Amino acid sequence: MTITLKIRKLGNSLGLIVPKEVSDQLHLKEGDSMHATIEHSGEMRLTPYDPNFEKALEAFDRTRHKYRNALRELAK
Q: What is the rounded CA–CA span in Å between residue 48 and residue 25?
């Protein structure tokens, strides 16, 4: 699916207008954050999910078994 987003001037900045059907599908509401990833090709990916959160979760997953005793003590 391809959606055209309109760029509007908002104060000294520019903003993208997200159509209602897109915000409903992504469960977006006013004040939510969107994350843009720009590829070397110039292509942009816009998502409501923080890509850094997944990297942090993977790092935690790699270390949680090693430090499970310490984590158990911290949870007390």
A: 11
Nearest residue to 33 via CA among 48, 20, 19: 48
pTM beyond cutoff 0.85: no
Task: Tell me the residue type at 74.
Answer: L
> Quick check: is 45 in a domain?
yes
Q: What is the pLDDT of residues 15-35, one digit of tens each?
A: 988 889 888 988 999 999 888
* Distance (Å, whole) CA 45 – CA 14: 17
**CATH code of the domain containing 55:** 2.10.260
